[in-house]
From TrEMBL:
Name used for this protein in its record: VOC family protein
Domain called Glyoxalase-like: residue spans: 13-110, 123-224
CDD domains given in the database record: VOC
Organism: Nocardioides eburneus
Domain of life assignment: Bacteria
Amino acid sequence: MATRSPLATFKDLCIDAVDAGQLAAFWGAVLGLRVEERPDGMTLLVGPTPQHTVWINQVPEPVSTKQRAHLDVHAASVEDVLDLGASPYDLESFRWKVLRDPEGGELCVFEREQVPDYRLYELNVDCADPEPIATWWARVLGGKLGHEDGVPWWWVEDVPGMPFEGIVFAPVPEPKIVKNRIHWDVDTPDLAALVAAGASVVRERDDEIAWTVLADPDGNEFCAFVGE
């Protein structure tokens, strides 16, 4: 059977922030990326490839509820991340450590004996039913669907161009109620194909934005760039 071509390719990540400068400094240090402030006022983190880019988007709304998308990171110790400005949230319940960034957003720290230069491990996304949404994103991005018996989460790995290990979809009981503060961007040759596959249009490309804001079948926002 012929393998279907992916509908999109991974482009980069975006994080909302009330104070873009402060959060950029924190995440740049945590992830091992360089902070860059552009003449147009945009703040971003840059690394060895365009796909390492993390846009820090200034927004007026503070964190108001548990994030449905958060970052998991490598670190030599949780103390290293706390020293950069994080605060402890749950250091006992899991084999990883749950912290909050300076604006209250959750992140998970995985302590390692060997820490890579780029320290983003994976992107974690809450959902009601992990298997169908992980399957959807594996199809869209051309990644490999992953699952192990005895664990409730599913993941997408080996995504072409994505510089971290994977996107993990974990089940939670609560519904999505606010816009995700962390999202990812994609490049696509065919916006209509994404919509036909199950994405919905949140905002059309217009004179103010050069991309289309979509939502996946679970309502997670992502931005699609055509012909970039």
